[in-house]
Design brief:
Layout (H helix, E strand, L loop, with lengths): L1 E6 L4 E9 L5 E10 L1 H5 L6 H23 L8 E7 L3 H17 L4 E5 H12 L6 E6 L4 E6 L5 E6 L5 H11 L6 H8 L23 H17 L6 H26 L5 E5 L6 H14 L2 E3 L10 H14 L17
Parallel strand pairs: 1-4, 4-5, 6-9, 9-10
Antiparallel strand pairs: 1-2, 2-3, 6-7, 7-8
Helix pairs in contact: 2-3, 4-10, 5-6, 5-7, 5-8, 7-8, 8-9
Length: about 325
């Protein structure tokens, strides 16, 4: 089977062609990404209207490039998968409407994909991961703990009650004058901190599996402002090191609770843009080694938004046999369990 995957939920237009012979035996025939980092860098974050317009400008040529690089004609595809939710509504609509038109023109079945499930599916691209497992998904817009019972059976068992983990990293980096996207810059700078600033945990107390990154973000902002008000020099590396330590430590705390509640689950997968954070990968790796849990992490190139993960998630929708109709609409906040 050959499936075209289209992703446009935020600030990257991504298109891929995926081939699958059987369960999770994927071959990535092409994987094209048009990044908007330079466009949004001047604003220090994603501007939704600008993102939507950039998707409109990029998507047609990107689909053509994906097909050309895969050596395929549209008529040689078996299906189209597109991110339909959640995400920035204007950005999502670009991908959804293009996919509907494309599927109609070439008489291909269309499958709506949940962006979170797409990130989880990034682990299927290069790993031998099979359900059941627990997934920790973190990005600039999402932070969730998900119990994956089957390829289409996902249940959210925990997550952030306010800000996303990636957004918190980006905000602190922006306040300290670091380049956008701030998460990558914070990751690198944290290694230079010799005296990490102490920040509170983002893990909400109790046997829940939830986070609150708003509190740790506010604590960091207050610390930065207090240093400026005292007219002292801010040690950015120590702030980055302390913030990273607190944020990553919070994740490990809730992973410990998650596997206490689900002791029969012996696999963990991490996914999303924050899954590229080297500190998170290291600490989660140590946690899994300590508790005898099998860990799966996507290759760095598949941590960010990409079309291959959407095509992979779309493959399982295809197996279920429920294509979307042409009245498919994008939704900003939906999660499909």
């Amino acid at each position: 089977m050959r499936i075209l995957g289209i992703e446009s939920s935020c600030d990257e237009t991504a298109v891929a062609v995926l081939s699958c012979e059987n369960e999770c035996d994927f071959s990535i025939l092409s994987n094209e990404v048009a990044s908007q980092i330079q466009v949004h860098a001047r604003y220090g974050g994603v501007v939704p209207e600008i993102a939507s317009r950039a998707h409109c400008e990029a998507i047609t040529n990107l689909v053509k490039a994906a097909l050309d690089n895969a050596g395929l004609k549209p008529s040689e595809l078996d299906a189209v998968a597109v991110t339909a939710f959640p995400g920035l509504i204007g950005a999502l609509l670009v991908g959804v409407n293009f996919a509907k038109g494309f599927s109609y023109q070439y008489k291909l079945p269309l499958y709506a994909v949940d962006h979170i499930k797409g990130h989880i599916a990034s682990n299927y691209l290069t790993n031998s991961l099979r359900p059941p497992f627990i997934a920790f998904v973190a990005s600039g817009g999402h932070t969730s703990l998900v119990l994956v019972k089957d390829y289409r059976d996902h249940r959210v068992i925990g997550g952030t009650r306010d800000d996303a983990m990636g957004e918190a990293f980006d905000k602190i980096a922006r306040v300290m004058g670091m380049p956008y996207p701030g998460g990558a810059a914070m990751d690198k700078l944290a290694y230079d901190g010799n005296h990490p600033v102490q920040f509170p945990s983002a893990a909400i107390k109790g046997d829940n599996l939830d986070f609150s990154f708003s509190g740790i973000k506010t604590a960091a902002l207050n610390y930065i402002n207090s240093v400026k008000q005292k007219d002292e020099e801010l040690n950015k590396a120590d702030v980055a090191a302390g913030f990273t330590k607190a944020a990553v430590g919070s994740v490990v705390t809730k992973l410990e609770e998650a596997f206490r509640q689900y002791p029969e689950i012996g696999r963990l997968a991490i996914a999303g843009g924050v899954a590229a954070n080297s500190h998170l990968r290291r600490e989660v790796g140590l946690f899994c080694k300590k508790h005898g849990i099998e860990l799966f992490m996507p290759e760095l190139r598949y941590c960010g938004d990409n079309g291959a993960m959407i095509a992979a998630a779309g493959y399982f929708e295809y197996l279920h046999g429920t294509p979307a109709n042409l009245d498919l609409n994008a939704e900003a906040s939906r999660f499909e369990e």
